[in-house]
Amino acid sequence: MIFIDNGSSVNVVFKSTFDQMKLEGFEFELVSTPLYGFAGHAIPPLGQIVHPLSLGTDPRRVTKMIAFTVMATFSAYNGIHGQPALKDFRAVASTYHQKLKFPVGKGVGVLCGDQKVARRCYEGVVRGEGKRLHVELNMIWKGRSE
C-alpha cells in the first residue's frame, strides 16, 4: 500500500518494505535532517536511496528515478509518494475520485484507489492492527489504462 500525500515534502519508503524488496548493492546516502510527523516529534532517517518507480500499466506506464528517504519507523503503508514524486511524474491526485492521473506520451495514465482496502487499512491502524494489515494488503493504488 502506498499513501499519496500532496503535503509531504519527501518520498518515503519504510525500512521493512526496503528489506522485503531485497535490493542488493544499494547504499543509503546520509541524510542529517530529521522528519517530523503528525505528532510533532523528530524521526531521524536511515538515509536516502534513488530507485526507479513505475506508474501505470502497459501501454500507459512511465518510469522515473525517484529519491526516497528510508525510515525505520512503523507504518501501515509501504511508502509515501509525496510532492517530489508527484512533481516528477507531473501527476494530479484527486482524493474525491481516488485517482492519480499523469501524462504518458500522447495519453494519460490512471491509477485508481480502492475505497474498501483504504477503509480496512485505516480502521486497522486505529485499532492497532497495522502490522498485520501491512502484510495482508497489497496496494491501495491499482494500475489501470484509459
What do these coordinates show?
The chain has four helices and eleven strands. The chain is α+β, with helices and mostly antiparallel strands and 146 residues long. It has one domain: Beta Barrel (Cathepsin D, subunit A, domain 1). The protein is globular, with a radius of gyration of 15 Å.
In short:
This protein has 146 residues and is α+β, with helices and mostly antiparallel strands.
Could you give the topology of this structure?
Blueprint: E1 2-4, E2 12-14, H1 15-21, E3 35-36, E4 42-43, E5 47-57, E6 60-71, E7 79-81, H2 83-88, E8 92-94, E9 99-104, E10 107-112, H3 115-126, H4 130-136, E11 142-145
Parallel strand pairs: 1-7, 2-6
Antiparallel strand pairs: 2-7, 3-4, 5-6, 8-9, 9-10, 10-11
Characteristics:
single chain, 146 residues, alpha+beta, Cathepsin D, subunit A, domain 1, four-stranded antiparallel sheet, 4 helices, 22% helix, 38% strand, globular
- Count of beta strands: 11
The radius of gyration is 15 Å
Oligomeric assembly: single chain
The figure for the number of domains is 1
> What is the architecture at the second tier of CATH?
Beta Barrel
Fill in the CATH topology. Answer: Cathepsin D, subunit A, domain 1
For the termini, the CA-CA separation is 22 Å
The average pLDDT value, as a whole number, equals 80
CATH class bucket = Mainly Beta
Proportion of residues in β-strands: 35-45%
Overall shape: it is globular
Name the helix and strand elements from N-terminus to C-terminus, one letter apiece.
EEHEEEEEHEEEHHE
Q: Tell me the structural class.
A: alpha+beta
In CATH terms, the superfamily is Acid Proteases
The share of residues in helices is: 10-25%
The biggest beta sheet is recorded as: 5 strands, mixed
Number of helices: 4
Unreliable segments of 5+ consecutive residues: 131-146
Strands of the biggest beta sheet: in what spatial order? 1-7-2-6-5
